[in-house]
Design a protein that fits this description.
By secondary structure, the chain is of the alpha/beta class. 38% of the residues lie in helices and 19% in strands. The protein has twelve helices and 14 strands. The strands form four sheets. Strands 3-2-1-4-5-8-12 form a seven-stranded parallel beta sheet, with helices on both faces. Helix 1 (13-22) links the parallel strand 1 and strand 2. It is globular and about 55 Å long.
């Protein structure tokens, strides 16, 4: 298949590009390298040494013989370049990672809020408009977030995107399914809820085929492909804006920095390993919806954990103490989270479950590159 990956230089995009290329798909990457520029803004960097995108692509070709094309432009701004690429290349599938992905970053200031909204919503709308204008029947696979559901007490298992409802009026019972009511906790999460509405609209009006993957928090760094050569290594973010909570804990454990648990640690979150992320993308691509089918929504997660339980697990493995800090986010001290995830399991996903041996692998990455850590970047300073 011909697969276009928007945002293919990022934490999830790069390993996905390699995973699909390794399986003999014709892969092209579009990225404006904005994530690298944000590192410059925040005066931080990935713990692992990220090579320039050109060197990454040359190394992949050298190791595997496979060619991956790269186009440097901004999907949110350069509509006609996107339209021309889709019209000329005619991809079978387009994987959409081209969005600012960090909730804390999106809440740093009015600038960061406006940037996140402009970038994320324009990128999504431009993609959908370009598919319609080009006349190319590309299947869109979008990386969304479990955060669209919010973290309130649902009192039930959260369904995959759609909520069945029953209304009684004038003696009649009406059954419908609606998008699960959104409850975003940041501007970033808000943009993902708006993505849902854009997908539903273009699907209804123009029959654009879409699979929306509501992903949990990603843990881990390497996949089979990124492990082949250090030039292919994936990002490891540990800073307070972009570092995912489990990877942050592992880096902190590796350098003896007390594990930063915000508030009680009773917040429950959904998690997925980076290797499972790329596998889920592949499963979604290989099982596309039909032309007239509504937007498919899958919950892309494998386990749920309370944050304090994760911290205690890592503290028990490493002896590094836990430090309870004020929570910089406006959220409940505790929450339950029960999630339906049968669709991807039914398509063949065999989840990598979090256990001490896999935690050890990630800890080894953290230890190997610990000298690259700037301890001043570990605290979470974006508050809302």
């Amino acid at each position: 298949m011909k697969i276009l990956i928007l945002g293919g230089d990022g934490f999830c995009g790069w390993p996905t590009a390699l995973h699909l290329s390794a399986r003999d798909h014709d892969v092209a990457i579009v990225d404006n390298l904005s994530r690298r520029n944000i590192d410059n803004e925040l005066e931080t960097s990935s713990l692992t040494p990220i090579r320039p995108i050109g060197e990454r692509i040359r190394a992949w070709k050298e190791i595997t013989g496979k060619v991956t094309s790269f186009y440097n432009f901004d999907v949110a701004e350069n509509y006609h370049r996107l339209l021309t690429l889709i019209a000329e290349w005619q991809p079978d599938a387009i994987v959409h990672f081209a969005e600012q992905r960090a909730a804390p970053y999106s809440m740093k200031s009015s600038y960061h809020k406006r940037y996140t909204v402009n970038n994320n919503l324009n990128a999504t709308n431009n993609l959908l408009a370009a598919i319609v204008e080009s006349g190319v029947d590309s299947h869109v696979v979008h990386l969304g977030t479990m955060g669209v559901y919010g973290y309130g007490a649902a009192g039930m298992k959260i369904p995959e995107g759609y909520l069945p409802i029953k209304l009684e009026e004038d003696g009649k019972v009406i059954h419908r399914e609606i998008l699960y009511p959104a409850d975003p906790g940041s501007i970033y999460h808000l943009t993902k809820t708006q993505d849902q509405l854009l997908f539903a609209f273009y699907n209804k009006i123009d029959e654009v085929r879409v699979t929306d993957l509501h992903q949990g928090i990603v843990w881990g760094t390497q996949t089979e492909e990124t492990s082949l050569d250090e030039r292919l290594i994936n990002r490891f973010d540990y800073d307070g804006d972009y570092g995912t909570v489990l990877n942050r804990f592992l880096l902190q454990a590796a350098i003896g920095f007390p594990l930063t648990v915000h508030g009680t640690g009773g917040q429950t979150r959904a998690f997925i390993n980076i290797q499972d992320t790329v596998r889920c993308i592949e499963l979604a691509i290989m099982n596309p919806p039909q032309k007239s089918e509504r937007v498919r929504i899958f919950n892309q997660m494998t386990e749920t954990f309370r944050l304090i339980d994760l911290a205690e697990m890592i503290s028990g493995l490493t002896g590094v103490p836990i430090s309870h800090l004020p929570n910089p986010r406006k959220e409940a001290d505790t929450n339950d989270l029960y999630v339906e995830n049968r669709s991807l399991i039914g398509l063949g996903l065999e989840p990598i479950m979090l256990n001490s041996s896999l935690l050890g692998e990630i800890r080894d990455i953290a230890k190997k590159y610990a000298s690259n850590c700037d301890r001043s970047k570990i605290p979470c300073v974006s508050k809302w």
